[in-house]
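[SOLVED] Need 3D model of a two-part complex

Original post:
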Amino acid sequence: MNPKEQKIDRWLDAALKQYGAAHPSPGLEARVLVTVRAEMQHVPTRRKLWALAVASATAAAIIAVWLASSTSQGRNGQATLTSPPVSANHGKKPEAKTTALAGAGKGTVGLKSRRRTYLSIKHAAAQRPKFDQFPSPRTLSQEDKLLLMYVRQTPRDELASVIAQEKNVSDLYINDLEIPPLGGETPDPEIKERN
Amino acid sequence: MAELVIANQAVTGVRMAEDALENAVREHAGLVYRIAYSVLRDHHEAEDATQETFIRVLRYRKKLDGIRDLRSWVARIAWRVATERRTRRSEVAFEASGDAVAQLRSSFIGAEEILLGTEMLSILERLIAGLPPKLRDPLTLSTVEEMSPADVATILGINEAAVRSRLFRARHVLKLKLSALLEGRHES
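Solution:
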């Protein structure tokens, strides 16, 4: 190693030593501690804010779901009530059907929604037309109409004879059948004894 | 009753973690600062990096008790914070001023004692900045007073032999660059 290289080597050693010698300004620890303590106080506050945000979001979601379910429940009740009034409900009580429907969602729907459903049913029932005759007259079927036409077109005498024939048919009496033994054989004496 | 005991334990645990963190600040703030300064070469930035380092430590304060070598762990965080900050900053190209080079030459001509002015130190900073990261990182860390090659190896995640080898190569490259500067072969 020549003197120049040695000198460069020494210069580099000294320069690198100086390069790494850094002294923080006084009070660095105190400043860092202040920052750290401030951050420590911020952390719980942030957590609280997060918890509050999560709780409010959950509450909003629950309310939205509850509102949606109660609205659909109301619509279902309305749909049942607006179905054909006379023919479809013949022989059945419409209230029973709708209350059964309302009762199906008892577990999920709250007291308020049930009360609302009940009121809507009551309102719909009040609007329904009222009839003097009970049970309310129903429309004739195709068979009924044909029979009515036949009765109108057929003379009375003929009708009377048809009715009489029907009566005769019902009065028919069939005697007990006697079946003789096959091939004209005499019955077995043992069977005779039993009889 | 059990809830009270759990709550007390939690409070005690938090306090212990806070105490451990404050102790870590008192013991290692200087080291963290020097590591940050060796990378960033700016006092204000080094202090900001020091604060950021301890805020990161704060996030893991519950794990502080389980850390075997707290000094190395904090040093590694400091190194990461500082290098992240350095990458955010634009790298300075090597441009030695004419005065600095003249001063450098004069300090070598017939002088027994080597004089290191601010200008000359800035030349070294730029020479180091021009090194490839593989050589620059071990050299930068090794200039920090308290850092042994083993510590440097722990922080960089390489073995000690590799650290020594890279330090040797880094010094060799620096010497070549200095020679070139003294002989006027550099481009200013």
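Edit: Residues 16 and 62 of chain B are 9 Å apart (CA to CA).
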